[in-house]
Write a structure and sequence with these properties.
With about 325 residues, the chain is of the alpha/beta class. Helices cover about 35% and strands about 20% of the residues. Strands 3, 4, 5, 6, 7, 8, 9, 10, 11, 14 and 15 form an eleven-stranded mixed beta sheet that branches. Strands 1-2 form a two-stranded antiparallel sheet. A two-stranded antiparallel ribbon has the order 12-13.
């Protein structure tokens, strides 16, 4: 007995969807960013891992509509932003990734996007006919790389997600114009990340409006929870109780209450303001086991440029 025509159509649709979902390119639709990156991504010729950057795992899997990263230098923030952008494109979302200048776009496309595609052939296979320094078509979606100095670069292109990299180097007016690209999207995601520059400006202003999260670590000895960025002195010349020497001359991150060494992987993000919808992360070099705490302490003691030290080291 033959099936009714409606059932036949439904069966064909289901088969098509099963085949589609089985493709590696579409599995990201239901897969969190962290798991997708670990499973699929290679960086600098090596499989992606969170080693030394465990604090970033929760950031990768945060799906909030608006995320702010107030960050120190070299903590993995830009890698997260570009992978989140590519992941969104794989899911069929158009992304506009903004930089301060056109020169920044060209350098980023050459030094970060190009090697990412070269290291990951499955992404290269998704690239379509349009492939320039400022435009990548990944599957059915577009990744636009744009400078914010020129109004032309921000016109006439709709987007589902906008990313502001080094927000503090852009003007507030440029940011406002860039956000207009989201006006016709049902998805509307905003990512902002930057080293801080001035209080109440740029990324600091955005972070102050967020729920203000800090990586908070539990001491395995006294069980006290500590956010190292909150415990670090707010000005030069004060005692640093969270960085202490070992007998061999090396340094470790210490619990300010009992002095025992902290395991920076054993932490969680704690928000100061739970009722705020914007998710804000303050990411310091104090969090990363890739950064020698002794170097941070030495720089704190000898720096002649305190603003630069706090902006790039402490975040």
């Amino acid at each position: 007995m033959s099936h009714p025509i409606g059932v036949s159509k439904l069966t064909g649709y289901v088969r098509g969807r099963v085949s589609e979902l089985a493709l590696p390119a579409t599995r990201a639709v239901s897969e969190p960013l962290a798991a997708w990156a670990i499973r699929r991504i290679r960086l600098d010729g090596r499989p992606f891992r969170f080693d030394g950057h465990e604090y970033l795992r929760a950031v990768y899997d945060d799906t909030a509509p608006h995320i702010v990263l107030l960050k120190a230098a070299q903590i993995g923030g830009t890698t997260w932003a570009i992978l989140k952008s590519v992941h969104a494109c794989v899911m069929g979302l158009h992304v506009m990734y903004f930089f301060p200048t056109r020169t920044d776009v060209l350098e980023f496309s050459k030094s970060r996007v190009g090697p990412l595609l070269a290291d990951n052939p499955f992404l290269g296979k998704l690239l379509r006919e349009t492939d320039t320094a400022g435009l990548k078509r990944i599957g059915s979606a577009y990744l636009f790389l744009r400078g914010m100095q020129s109004p032309v670069g921000m016109k006439s292109v709709p987007a589902d997600m906008v990313v502001f990299d080094e927000l503090d180097e852009a003007t507030p007016d440029a940011r406002t114009r860039a956000l207009e690209r989201l006006s016709h999207s049902d998805y509307r995601r905003v990512i902002e990340l930057s080293n801080p520059s001035l209080p109440h400006y740029g990324i600091d202003e955005a972070y102050q409006a967020s729920d203000q999260r800090h990586w908070t670590v539990r001491c395995g000895h006294c069980t006290t929870w500590t956010a190292l960025d909150k415990e670090f002195p707010a000005k030069l010349g004060e005692e640093v109780r969270i960085i202490r020497p070992r007998e061999d001359g090396s340094y470790y991150r210490a619990c300010p209450h009992c002095g025992e060494e902290l395991n920076m992987d054993q932490g969680e993000w704690v928000a100061d303001f739970l009722d705020r919808p914007i998710h804000g992360y303050r990411i310091s070099q104090l969090y990363s086991s890739k950064v020698d705490p002794g170097e941070i302490l030495a720089e704190y003691k000898k720096t002649r440029f305190p603003e630069r030290f706090y902006n790039l080291k402490i975040g």
